[in-house]
Amino acid sequence: MKKLFLALVLLLATGAGVLYGFPATLLASMQWLEQRAAGLSHERVEVADLSIHYYRGGPRDGQTILMIHGFGADKDNWLRFARPLTERFQVIALDLPGFGDSSKPNASYDVGTQAERVASFVQALDIDRLHLLGNSMGGHIAALYAARYPQRVSSLALFANAGIDAPVKSELIARLESGATNPLLVQKPADFERLLDFVFVEPPPLPAPLKRYLAERAVDNSTHHQQVFTQLIERYIPLEPELPKIKAPTLLLWGARDRVLDVSSIEVMRPLLRRSSVVIMEDLGHAPMIERPQETAGHYLSFLDGIADAED
Q1: Is the pLDDT of residue 17 over 60?
Q2: How confident is the model at residue 311 (pLDDT cuts 50, 70, 90)?
Q3: Could you tell me the CA-to-CA distances from 154 to 41, 46, 133, 134 in Å, in that order?
Q4: Fewer beta carbons under 10 A from the terminal one: N or C of the chain?
């Protein structure tokens, strides 16, 4: 298997000029390599008439980590972050319905509905207990799931989660309240560059043809994403009443320079949680598992090891 992996790397290197002319092929090849490096496979399951795609890797008889992406994102957000996790844990990263490769029906996408879809997904995979992890909108969904199904959650990690009325308004919230354009929505190709600059302190390097392809894909999804975002606002579920229901130890991890959701949310959340740990990463934006995956995974593994030590 290692020889096959090395052979593909060499093939991609020698055929780079060809791949640059076909960005969809380049993206698929890069994703495949990242999956292999993380020990993940692409799988699919039918749940309540929805086709849900996900990555899964690591020991099937080990403890399970389920990772939930944020708004406008997909399961690929977790690929590099997952690398050090699959040696010890069964790791699952799903595409929420409405995103990635999963079904996109004309249906509800508020966090309450999505939390119940996650519950159905977990049941379909016959998982009794899990470590739950979410970023942004995915953190909002993960926290709501942990509050509704506390007996199923061994630990909860929230990376810059939505759902909190922060003492300090983030730049995103201030823009939306002023009626300015939503920087998370890509309505024309140039918006994609601005989105990257808004979400990250140091945007991930992308070949120019791939960046153009991702921008065009985001534009194609803009109407759907606008509808989803509208539902998130109109059917908003605040987390403040839900957090005291969470029994699992919880990690609150945030980038200090997050412009999407302000780090001051932690001040609201920590007193409402039974058992919480906090990590604030300097010079980091809204998606720590993408911007600094290895360092973020290290913090997460330290959190899980601390739980294990406390239980011994």
Answers
A1: no
A2: confident
A3: 24, 25, 11, 14
A4: C
How confident is the model over 42-66, as pLDDT tens digits? Answer: 999 999 899 999 999 999 998 999 9
Say if CB 201 and CB 285 are below 8 A apart.
Answer: yes
- Cα-flanking dihedrals φ and ψ of residue 163, to 5°? 100, 5
Sole residue written with tokens 């997909």: 74
State which amino acid sits at residue 160: A
264 is catalytic: no
Say if strands 153-159 and 130-135 run parallel, antiparallel, or are unpaired.
parallel
Instruction: Return the SS3 of 261.
Output: coil
| The residue to which tokens 């600094």 are assigned | 292
State yes or no: pLDDT of 5 exceeds 90. no
* CATH code, residues 28-168+238-311: 3.40.50.1820
The C-alpha atoms of residue 288 and residue 254 are separated, in whole angstroms, by 8
Whether 136 sits among the annotated catalytic residues: the reply is yes
Among 69, 131, 140, 286, the active-site one is 69
Spatial strand order in the sheet of 276-281: 40-47, 50-57, 90-94, 64-68, 130-135, 153-159, 250-255, 276-281
Per DSSP (E only), the strands in 232-275 are: 250-255
Phi, psi angles (nearest 5°) of residue 261 = -135, 125
| C-beta neighbour count of 309 within 10 angstroms | 8
